[in-house]
Design brief:
mainly alpha, DNA polymerase, domain 1, hpI Integrase, Chain A
Amino acid sequence: MPKRGHGEGSITKRADGRWMARILQLNGKRKYFYGTTRAEVQTKLGEAVRARQQGKALPTARLTVEEFFSDWLKAVEPQVRYRSFLYYKRNITMHANPEIGRISLQRLTPLHLQQLYAKKLSAGLSSTSVHHLAAVIHRALADAERWGLVGRNVAGLAKSPRIRRTEMKTLDAQQVRQLLDTARDERNYALYVLAVTTGMRQGEILALRWKDVDLEGGSIRVTGSLQPGPDGLRIVEPKTKSSRRQITLTPMCIDALRAHRKDQITHRMKLGDLWHDHDLVFCTSFGNPIWANEFTNRTFRGLLEKAGLPRIRFHDLRHTAATLMLSQGVHPKIAQEMLGHTTIAITLDLYSHATATMQLGAANAIQDLLAPTPQSKRDPGT
């Protein structure tokens, strides 16, 4: 073997058969790595050399995956939305830590992660949930690599499960009419009309303020989303530029919002000082923000049952609106802008079942344009 240069460390075989690598740290102390093969310690030594060259702390075998995740969550909390932080924390504490938490971060391998994903799938977790778990782990380990705690992100070498598309649940036009007829006497009737005619997200609807509603012009502006925070509900900025948008309203939606505003003003005058003014279009009976989960569980599901409709998520009203738009020939670009998708590809991918109807319409249009007319047909006797 060629002689190593100064500072590159050394590798020797111990009397007990194991291999040992050592390197001089920046503080003057030696760091030792052990393994059953020369290749194993060679890898560890290479990672240590790169870390030292970059001025990073040398990898340590004492830090467990669970300890690292704990530190990572504390570091990432101020950088992301509170809802995202809770999502990261739930995936780590419920799924990752019980399986791989005790493993040394340095000894975590792609196989460990592959086994984790397989176990979660066999336990009944959906492929989408496991895919999201893998994404959280990948992001965390990418930071571990950036911080010099590991030499590479092993999550990049583990295959996350392929997401299996489930059949989208939507209401057809008749069912939507049935839903709205049943909800007509509800306090938040306008909320349902807005959901099925615009495709707005639930958080966007619950964050809607009267200052963003132009009933004379027949449009609304989406400027935020109602999300849980450490101290309760709060309106946060849209995640993407496309989510901040203006939507043209249908006449029936304008009428519903006019009636809703009139009722709200009457109710507000009756309450007087008991009313909490947040300028919200849809709020509790005292003017406060509505918790989405409580609204879905206590109000929306009861409405579905009363209307004799299948149990769906509130988010499925967004899918319903998009499907109705596209099936009625609305251009996908317009649907994309109304829904707030980043690209038209997302719209076309999500609602390919509806664009099939558009293709049939296009085929019929071409047929009508190019089919020979009776006058152009040749007379068989000529």
